Amino acid sequence: MVVLGAGPAGLTLGNLLQRSGIDCVVLERAExxxxxxxxxxxxxxAHTVRILERxxxxxxxxxxxxxxxxxxxxxxDGRFRLEYGGLGLGERHTVYPQQLLVGDLLTRxxxxxxxxxxxxxxxxxxxxxxxxxxxxxxxxxGRPGRWQARYVAGCDGRHGAARRSLPAGAVxxxxxxxxxxxxxxxxxxxxSLDAVGYAVHERGFAGHMARxxxxxxxxxxxxxxxxxDAWSEERIWEELELRMRAKxxxxxxxxPFVQRSVVDLESDVLEPLRHGALFLAGDAAALISPxxxxxxxxxxxxxxxxxxxxxxxxxxxxxxxxDTYSARCLPYIWxxxxxxxxxxxxxxxxxxxxxxxxSPFHDALRRSRLASLRTSxxxxxxxxxxxxxx
Length: 390
Ligand code: RFL
Hints:
The protein is α+β, with helices and mostly antiparallel strands. The chain folds into 2 domains: 2-68 and 87-175 and 266-342, FAD/NAD(P)-binding domain, CATH 3.50.50; 179-265 and 359-388, 2-Layer Sandwich (D-Amino Acid Oxidase, Chain A, domain 2). The chain is 36% helix and 26% strand. The chain has helices spanning 8-19, 32-35, 46-54, 59-64, 98-111, 161-164, 233-243, 246-249, 295-316, 320-347, 360-375, 377-388; strands at residues 2-4, 25-27, 43-44, 66-68, 71-75, 78-82, 93-95, 115-117, 121-126, 134-138, 144-148, 152-154, 172-187, 196-199, 206-210, 216-222, 257-271, 274-275, 278-280, 286-287. The chain has an 8-stranded mixed β-sheet. A 6-stranded mixed β-sheet has the order 8-2-1-12-19-18. A hairpin with a 5-residue loop joins strand 15 and strand 16. Helix 1 (8-19) packs parallel to helix 9. The structure holds 8-demethyl-8-dimethylamino-flavin-adenine-dinucleotide. 8-demethyl-8-dimethylamino-flavin-adenine-dinucleotide (RFL) binds at residues 4-10, 27-30, 35, 40-43, 98, 121-122, 155-157, 160-161, 184, 263, 282-283, 290, 293-297, 299.
């Protein structure tokens, strides 16, 4: 079994296969040091924690992760707080930086005899529609190489080789560009509030999310095409304080920004998540905008489903799970996409003044959507269930 990519999807899958006694190698383009320092996600759903716990992969996050169960909306109509841990299914997030989770998964995988080829870039998946697929790679020393396997798992993200290797017409891609961009920042500063902060402002969205007691993620909506280094630190803090209405609700705790990137909010889903012997999981299967923190959670869910299906096939000769893998994953993916899309509409003023959907009418709809979330208990329960659930 060859797994492309050592992110949450590939490493969860690798761990589960290796423990079932299925020989597998993970091919990873990056070096190990890069993997375990690459900050991305942080909010893990209760279901994700249960999966990782079930397979003995949750030690680090249970020890160091922080339970999180509230969010605060700040808008032109005032602020309100949702204690979502007491709503819906009564579940909470565990905040645990993705790079720490990846580091834990990697350590466990290597400890059970798993093999990761770092610095090895998959170039193409070949002959996926035959019984003898292979992966053409560029080895760490630059030389070409080839790996043969019974099955290949494409867990190498949206720009990986798995997607590129799909022949035209083999899968259908549903995609959406939400027309919104965020400047994503990691500040070396303690969180400023004990909740996720979502600010809707006429100048654009701003977000606050705890990562650890010393690191906080912030987002500032920016114009499409803005370079990540376009704004000075001072300007970013001023913009954040303005949009988060710090004068009314309290100052932000400042610190240097240790990472910046611009994220264009885009989503897509491939259907089906299989082409012959090539299976897709995680961002390679479906890209989801970070507006509702679903990507890493879906990656772990799909990895568990794929691991079970591969185990049934390879150890027990039962291909049913592989045959139904795509159809079983897609409802979860679409449900997460629908909620993320709804969140984008909740948090942003219409993106392109004058373009379709950017009318005062739509702005008023957004305010009404926030008002019903503020006042309707059934709406709050619905929100909580989808916000923490997968
Ligand atoms: P990853 O993590 O991108 O890992 C893919 C791996 O494949 C490697 N790779 C290759 N290796 C070999 N050959 C090739 N040709 C290769 N091409 C790529 C890469 O080096 C990499 O190591 O995909 P995976 O495993 O599917 O996991 C998906 C998640 O990483 C992603 O969905 C989340 O980070 C999304 N996301 C969030 N998800 C959450 O569940 N909760 C959050 O709070 C959350 N916050 C976020 C996020 C994503 C963000 N960005 C980067 C847009 C916050 C941000 C800013």
